[in-house]
Amino acid sequence: MDDSTAPAALEELARLIRQASQELDRAIATSLGESSVGRWHVLTAVAAGDGRSMSQLAEATLCTGASLTRLIDAMIADNLVLRRVDDTDRRRVLVFPTRRGQLAFESMTAALGASGLDRLAADRGRLTRSLTALIDNLHATTSARV
Fold first, then answer.
1. What is the pTM of this model?
2. For residue 121, what are the CA distances in angstroms to 16, 124, 126?
3. Residue 47 phi, psi (nearest 5)
4. Where are the beta strands (DSSP E) in the chain?
5. Which residues pair with 52 in a beta bridge?
6. Domain spans of the chain?
7. Residue range 80-121, pLDDT digits in tens
8. 6-114: which CATH topology?
9. How big is the CA angle at 42 (ends 38 and 43), to the nearest 5 degrees?
């Protein structure tokens, strides 16, 4: 690939990755009967019941601060999660699933299984390795410039 086609190829790659992500989110949301996958990501992150900080949830959901706070506030209003001050670090707040949130997560998991989308996960190995390598290369390229 010469230098004149590299920017166009990079734009196409970015667009295809964005489109694949949006289509996957749309398919998951449709299977869940939700308007977005945000609640599913949060419930997946807190399902173990050991509590997650807002920074851990931001990393797990890829939501930014204000959007994540609004999402968590809405989920608290719907009795899906609750906030508690961390016993070991009183400055930190942890998010836990409620019983209703745990049941919603189980229902979502069953709905995804029934939809057949979980079969995509069986084929994820090669794609995961390729995307991880892409992310690592992007990190290496941007950190080399700084």
1. 0.81
2. 19, 5, 11
3. -60, -30
4. 52-53, 81-85, 93-97
5. 95
6. 6-114, 116-146
7. 999 999 888 888 999 999 999 999 999 999 999 899 887 777
8. Arc Repressor Mutant, subunit A (1.10.10)
9. 115
